[in-house]
Automatic annotation (TrEMBL):
GO terms for cellular component: Golgi membrane. Coiled coil: none annotated. GO terms for biological process: protein secretion; vesicle-mediated transport. The lineage of its organism: Eukaryota, Metazoa, Chordata, Craniata, Vertebrata. Keywords: Membrane, Transmembrane, Transmembrane helix. It is found in: Membrane. The gene is Tvp23a. Belongs to the TVP23 family. InterPro entries: TVP23-like. This is Golgi apparatus membrane protein TVP23 homolog. It holds the Pfam family DUF846.
């Protein structure tokens, strides 16, 4: 069980949304509101990508650039034989938060456009971008269900020897599958 990870998975997301909705009530400074919301969105992106995805659902994704300058996207899923009821609840919370928040930011996008509050448009686009990037990464990890990572936390931080091939098998029975492309 990971109650702290579950809390922070939702805390930054919900805080960014609530701050966006009620920031004008507490501050007249557009810049202060903009920076606060952008920081909350950034904290959310980092915590979901680097911590809560790994702990709550056993998924992770990242990008590496090899010596030739090619971008390699790596999507991994840990094999979990059985899950306890609490872990299933955490997984549901993870996926609901991951799916619902980009929808909310998309509603904010259309609301901003139709109300002609164009100064908020850049912030809303940043919210959509960060939330959708995590959603895309984790859906890609989930669809590649045959990929697995080691249960050892230390293997999550190994970055040596970027593979030149699409797949490689490492001694700890970890498969890495990359989608190669240039930016």
């Amino acid at each position: 069980r990971h109650p702290l990870a579950t809390f922070f998975h939702l805390f930054f997301r919900v805080s960014a949304i609530i701050t966006y909705l009620f920031c004008d009530w507490f501050s007249n400074s557009f810049v202060a509101c903009f920076v606060t919301i952008l920081l909350l969105l950034s904290f959310d992106f980092w915590s979901v990508k680097n911590v809560t995805g790994r702990l709550l659902v056993g998924l992770r994704w990242w990008n590496q650039i090899d010596e030739d300058g090619k971008s390699h996207w790596v999507f991994e899923a840990r094999r979990v034989p059985t899950r306890a009821a609490s872990t299933e609840a955490e997984a549901r919370i993870f996926w609901l938060g991951l799916i619902i928040c980009p929808v909310i930011w998309t509603v904010f996008f259309f609301s901003t456009l139709f109300s002609l509050k164009l100064k908020w448009l850049a912030l809303v686009i940043a919210g959509i971008s960060l939330q959708t990037a995590n959603l895309y990464g984790y859906i890609h990890c989930k669809l590649g269900g045959h990929k697995s990572t080691s249960r050892a936390t230390s293997s999550f931080f190994v970055t040596a020897d970027v593979p030149k091939r699409q797949e490689r098998r490492t001694p700890d029975h970890t498969e890495e599958h990359g989608k190669t492309g240039t930016r």
